[in-house]
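Pilot study result, target chain (285 residues):
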Amino acid sequence: MQHDSERPVPPRLAAAVDVARAAAVEAADGEADQVGEALTVHAEDGGDAVGDAPVTAATHYLAAAKPGYRGWTWAVTVMTADEDPEAPVTVGEVALLPGAGAVVAPEWVPWNERVRAEDLAPGDLLPVDSDDDRLVPAHAALDDDVDPVDEAEDPEQVRGVADELGFGRPRVMSPEGRFDAAARWSDGDFGPTAEMARAASAHCGTCGFYLSLAGSLRGAFGVCGNGNVPADGHVVHAEYGCGGHSELQIDTGSVVTVAELVYDDGVDMDAPAEPVAVGADPDGS
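Predicted structure:
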C-alpha cells in the first residue's frame, strides 16, 4: 500500500488508535512499555480504488520505545470493509520502520568486496572466485604477454615450452584486471599525482633504480630498487619521482667561503737576511 495524503482518513479508522497500539504491543512480545505515544495516521491507497472509492485502510504511527531502536516508529495498518459501516476494524500488518534519525545497519556488502588489502594478516587465506573477472585462463591471455620483439614466434610453440618446463599457470590477469590494477597504482601513493612526485625534479622512468615490469604494463610501471627511499620494493609509476633519483647531482663543496691564495713572486724567500746592529734603526740610518 501507499500513502494517499490528499484523502482524509475516515473517523472509524482514525479512532482505532487502541487497536493499533494493541497490535504493536503484541508484536513487541507483550512489552507495553516498548510502544510509545501515537504520532500520526495516514490514509492508504489500496491500489485498486479509483475515483471517489472510500478509504478502507489507514496506517497509525506510534513512537517506538524498544531498546536499540532509537528513532524508529511502529507502523500499524488497520482496515475495514467499505460496504458495512458496522464492520469491525482489523489489523492488516505491523512493522517497525526507521525514521530520519534512526540507527540502521550499514548496507550489506559481500565479504569478498568488504575485505581490504590491509586486513590480510600472516596465515590468513583470501580465496578468489572462480568467475573473478580480473583473471582469465592462461592460454587465453598468452598472446597478450608475448613481447613485441618476439611477435614472430609462434604462440603455440611458446605455450608448449612454458607448459613443458612447468611455467604454465591455470589463470592470469585479464585485460580488465590489469586495467583495474593500473588505475589503482596510478591513484596510489606512488602514482604521478602523489605529493612526492609533484615535488620531485626527475621521474622514475629515467632512474637507474627503476626496474620495469614485463608484459603489457611495462611502459608505465616498474619496481623501485632504491633501498634508501620509501618506494623501495613498491610498484611505482614511470612518472612518479622522489629525492632518491639515481641521476640527482648535488654540489657537495664547502659551504665556508675560502679566500683565494695570492703569491708574491717578487720576494725571494731563500735569500739570507742582512744583519742589523744593536741599537741601529732597521732602515740603517
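One observation from the pilot: The first helix runs from residue 11 to 14. A full batch analysis is planned for the follow-on phase.
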